[in-house]
Amino acid sequence: MTRETEKFNLQKQQLEKIRQQLLFVAAHLIELMCKTVDKTVNNWHVSNDEAVASLLQTLKELKSDLLSPPASQIRSTNDSDPVQELERAAWQQERSILQNALKQAESKLAKATAETENKPTVEAFNLK
Q1: Does some domain include residue 123?
Q2: How crowded is the C-beta side of 9, counted as CA atoms within 13 Å?
Q3: Cα 123 from Cα 127, distance rounded (Å)
Q4: CB within 8 A of 4, min separation 6: which ones?
Q5: How many domains, the chain?
Q6: For residues 82 and 52, what is the distance between their CA atoms, to the nearest angstrom?
Q7: Where is this region: Disordered (predicted)?
Q8: How far apart are CA 66 and CA 60, in angstroms?
Q9: Domain of 94?
Q10: Predicted pLDDT of residue 114
Q11: Residue 75 lies inside a defined structural domain of this protein
Q12: What is the pTM of this model?
């Protein structure tokens, strides 16, 4: 296996890990939103607070992973294999899609949290 193939496989593994984390977060967000539809501030349970805190931590980790390019993505200017360029472009597009999905998940979590706490909706994250 060539060095470039190893780098590409590593990038694919990292992307799959992020995709799995996003699926995990999405499932928890859906569960949390279903649980909080009929709740008010008076019966907001500690376990839900812990779930929100856990989701926030996972989202922060995902955001960090998505915003910092892996070392394997930084390449020399001599590397000009057209197939690898196409693969890299596809990976970048997928990364962008995942970043947008993460921003949407953060926004939905902030809205659900605000609704549950009966507060005005305010974006809880700086998405820049």
Answers
A1: no
A2: 6
A3: 9
A4: 79, 81, 84
A5: 1
A6: 44
A7: 108-128
A8: 10
A9: 3-38+45-66+82-116
A10: 78
A11: no
A12: 0.39
